[in-house]
Amino acid sequence: MPVRTGRAEWRGDLKTGNGTVDVESGTFEAAYSFPSRFETGPGTNPEELIAAAHAGCYAMALSNAMAKDGHTPTRVAASAQVHLSMEGGAHIEKIHLLCEAEVPGMDADTFQTYAQDAKVGCPVSKALASVEITLEASLLD
User: Fold this and answer.
1) 52 located within any domain
2) How far is CA 38 from CA 14, 18, 34, 42, 84, in A?
3) What is the domain count for the chain?
4) Is residue 20 assigned to a domain?
């Protein structure tokens, strides 16, 4: 099985320091800082990277499950909202997945079953199982 690597380097203290994150493939590198994580400053942060990973994993898992059963989607668009709470110390409180899909010939109830199963079954959801994960999924015509 493949092993994927992400890297981070932080320089300085929490409030005035800064850092960079990147991935082994070289396709992504970004700066991050206290303002980009806990305020609205420029740069990325760990929570939005988790959100992107979760959305990507979910969209692939949902597409795969439907296609395996003969329902190849035209499109699956997913996003994830990672809620960072400061109450009781910084922690990820919940993740809300949003999904829109176009799946020719599929009815809404069947789609919801696939959508819920993918929410629980995608590898990133499994890794984040200690966090409440909610889902809002829509089948488009």
Assistant:
1) yes
2) 11, 13, 6, 11, 9
3) 2
4) yes
Domain ranges, residue 92: 46-140
110 lies in some domain: yes
Q: Are residues 83 and 106 in the same domain?
A: yes
pLDDT tens-place values along the chain, 141 residues long: 899 999 999 999 999 999 999 999 999 999 999 999 999 999 999 999 999 999 999 999 999 999 999 999 999 999 999 999 999 999 999 999 999 999 999 999 999 999 999 999 999 999 999 999 999 999 998
pTM, entire model = 0.94
Between the alpha carbon of residue 78 and those of residues 10, 14, 44, 123, the distances in Å are 30, 32, 19, 15
